[in-house]
Amino acid sequence: MRGWVWLAPPVLVGILPLLVVLVAAVENVHRVGVSRGDYAFIELSTRSALHGRALLGPYSRYRWNHPGPALFYWFAPFYRLSGEAPESLGVGAAVCNTLAVAVAIVVSGVASGKRAAWLIGAGSVALVWVWGYSWIDRIWNPFIILMVIVATGFVLAAVLSGCRWLTPLLVAFATFTVQSHVGTAPIIALFACAAVVGIARSAWKDRRAWLAPLAASLGVAVLGWSLPVYEQFTGHPGNLGELIQFLRASHGRHGVGEVLDKVAVQFTLSKMGLLSNVVSAKRELPGATAPRMVVLVLLLGCVGAGIYLNRRAGRRFEQHLCEVALLAALGVFVACLRVVGKLEGYLTMPATAVGALLWSAAALTLAGEVSDRLSDRHAPRLAVALVAIAVVGTLWFSNDVRQGHPERSLQVRQYPDPAALAISNDLRDALPRRSGDVLLEPSGPTMATAGMLANQIELGGTRVHVDRRLDYFFGRERRSDGCEAVVVRVGATGEAPRRDAGRVVGVFASQVVQVRQVVPPSRCD
User: Fold this and answer.
1) In whole angstroms, what is the distance from residue 58 CA to residue 72 CA?
2) How far apart are CA 438 and CA 71, in angstroms?
3) Distance CA 64, CA 99 (A)
């Protein structure tokens, strides 16, 4: 363990900016907030994970779920420890990203040495400066997988370099990534092919040394995919089957030129703010300018040349990182070519992470070429300069975050609406005591409000059930069994209250909320 102590300084420098946001997220845990929209459904699924009932991944607008619930089981311990405070999910996201950065730095140091560890540590500070900090505690699945993709690429490069005991970690990261966002499947599939080929070549020479790492990796894979496989065979139809059928039947209408025009912006490390247009009316990504295309061509050329330069210099980790980065770029192209509809920001989000991989590979290659020509007395000076830059950048960043506190709160930042808390409290007061399970009847345009209300009802200890057609939103564990004693109806936007739908609790965002008691069938006794 003593030989690993030298990794602590570069790791600390690299995660300093993320720790600032993590502290702010912890301070916000007990702020009063009401989760709405996607956040409400994430909180509902996290609550299911607390009881081992979450079987589906995040929902998609295409009416299926992402491959698995790993994201919700990651959030579950933070949610439990906070007493089911919605802000604790932001803490879970910040911890996830902090760990991913730390892993990338440690893996670089173990596989390549001090130079790589320090460079990636300083680079992570620069990345936060470029991306901004809104992604660090963002729980939405297109955001939370970004740094995990980067870490997965670093771990794969280390495994290909001979660090065989990182194979279980590679499987864990890949599982989390693809379960949380199916758009990463082409990237992970190419990573898997590279891993299989590389491990097969190494294991052929030393089979006995690979037995234990591969057995541990198999155990991680079985553990990570047991719930999605169980859901597939017990669901009617299973989610994985629905997902595969959709992907086989759908064909995007995007050409290579259009995809290149869109992802070039993210490959060249644009600010994360450009993706805020996901919630705008236009939902359009900007096209690449001529200077950006020049930068992209130079970047890809440097990474491609890095494969040869690093191989010639015997830098195996840097060589494999260049190969992994190019594979990831290819995976992004494959994914975007298959997208149905517009190339919106959140659908091309993995390209942002791949940009970080490309720049990391190019930087490590350049650093290797430069350091090979530096004398021993210049290398420590370079390390000191990197530390100074990183510390100054973190101090600037910390001040920016602290000035924005407490607006760093996820709920305040996303949905600063006191009316949401008011309608939620009114609804819980309107529910009869000992009401048993509640059947929620939402119509399509009111789904965001329905998710918020379902989440608030369950916070009071009452189970919510829904029609089976809404399983992909609420989870199969909330499917109606016909024995509910109370019905909560959320009317469509602008719809007048129905007289036969019970007592009107209130109107939120022009959506009528009504409650009525019913008599369950005799079979429910």
Assistant:
1) 9
2) 27
3) 30
Listed residue (291, 287, 284, 299) closest to 260, CA to CA: 287
Pull the structure tokens for residue 100: 């991913």
Between CA 168 and CA 157 the distance in angstroms is: 14
Question: Average pLDDT in the 249-275 region?
Answer: 80
Q: What share of the chain is helix, strand, coil (3-state, %, to 5)?
A: 70, 5, 25
Residue 59: φ, ψ to 5°: -75, 160
Q: Alpha-carbon distance 218 to 215, whole Å? A: 5
**Rounded distance, CA 198 to CA 159, Å?**
8
How buried is 314 (Cβ within 10 angstroms: 0-12 exposed, 13-18 middle, 19+ buried)? exposed
The tally of CA atoms less than 13 A away on the side-chain side of residue 394 is 21
For the chain, give the number of residues.
Answer: 525
Both tokens of 63, joined, read 């009416």
Q: Looking up tokens 């996830």, which residue turns up?
A: 96
Q: What are phi and psi of 506, to 5 degrees?
A: 170, 180
Q: Is 134 exposed, middle or buried (0-12, 13-18, 19+ CB in 10 A)?
A: middle
pLDDT tens-digit series, residues 121-176: 988 888 888 887 888 888 999 999 999 999 999 999 999 999 999 999 999 999 99
Map 229-254 to HEC letters.
HHHHHHCCCCHHHHHHHHHHHCCCCC
DSSP, collapsed to helix, strand or coil, labels residue 15 as: helix
Least confident of 54-58, 182-186, 203-207, 388-392: 388-392
d(CA 458, CA 487): 14
Smallest CA-to-CA distance from 75 within 106, 96, 55 is with 96
Closest alpha carbon to 349 in 293, 286, 267: 267
Is residue 214 scored above 60 in pLDDT?
yes
CA distances from 363 to 224, 354, 357, 502 (A): 34, 14, 10, 65
- Kindly list the distances between the CA atom of residue 341 and the CA atoms of 58, 208, 430, in Å, as whole numbers in the listed order: 20, 49, 42
Cis peptide before 237 (omega within 30 of 0): yes
Tokens read off for 295:
């930068």
Residue 506's pLDDT is: 85
Indicate whether 248 pLDDT > 70: yes
Q: What is the mean pLDDT of residues 437-446?
A: 82
Contacts of 121 (CB under 8 A, 6+ apart): 9, 10, 11, 13, 14, 105, 386, 390
| Closest alpha carbon to 328 in 297, 359, 290 | 359
Look up the pTM and report it: 0.92
CA 69 and chain centroid, separation = 12
With tokens 């491609």, the residue in question is: 304
Of the CA atoms within 13 Å of residue 167, those in its CB half-sphere come to 27
Residue in 400, 358, 409, 392 with CA at minimum distance from that of residue 133: 400
